[in-house]
Write a structure and sequence with these properties.
Helix 2 links the parallel strand 1 and strand 2. It contains 5 helices and 5 strands. The protein has 156 residues and is an alpha/beta fold. It is 33% helix and 26% strand. The protein has a 5-stranded parallel beta sheet with strand order 3-2-1-4-5, with helices on both faces. The chain has a single domain, classed as 3-Layer(aba) Sandwich (Rossmann fold). The radius of gyration is 18 Å and the shape is globular.
């Protein structure tokens, strides 16, 4: 079976491929203002579309700390702070991304995930667990793409 026959069966030839016809929104989950997050923000700026960083607040008494750090480092993208009532990191992020997608009909969301690459193989079990959790949830969602942006610990 050739590639054209495959397309002919699904009638993909009639589908328009126009990157400018939709809207692209970039979400960067950040835990702290650090080299890992800054690296992900730097990458996200290469993507087209709106960019926003999202911080999930697990402890309401820490609400001003992240905003203070954000302003101190003069980061030029908006920071959205979402409260988690039950300690979940996924639920507020999922609700936020769903809200973006439902408020705009033709939208693609890219979730840029900062990932720490360690020098020792056994350290991978200690880091990036939240990244794996986010990826496992959003891989089932149409119109949502997750992208890992690696940061090599000890080299930068």
């Amino acid at each position: 079976m050739d590639a054209y026959a495959f397309c002919d069966n699904w009638d993909l030839r009639s589908q328009q491929i126009d990157a400018k016809s939709g809207h692209h929104f970039v979400v960067i989950p950040v835990a702290n203002v650090d080299k890992l997050s800054i690296n992900a923000i730097r990458y996200a700026k290469y993507l087209s579309g709106e960019i926003v960083a999202v911080h999930i607040l697990l402890n309401p008494s820490d609400s001003n700390e992240m905003e203070t750090q954000w302003k101190k480092h003069n980061i030029d993208i908006p920071l959205v702070i979402l409260e988690s009532s039950n300690g979940s990191l996924i639920e507020p992020l999922m609700t936020y991304v769903d809200g973006i997608r439902h408020s705009r009909q033709t939208i693609f969301v890219t979730i840029v995930l900062p990932v720490l690459i360690t020098l020792k193989w056994w350290h991978r079990y200690l880091h990036n667990q939240t990244t794996r959790l986010i990826e496992s949830y959003f891989k089932r969602e149409t119109g949502v793409v997750t992208v890992r942006v690696p940061f090599l610990l000890g080299k930068n």
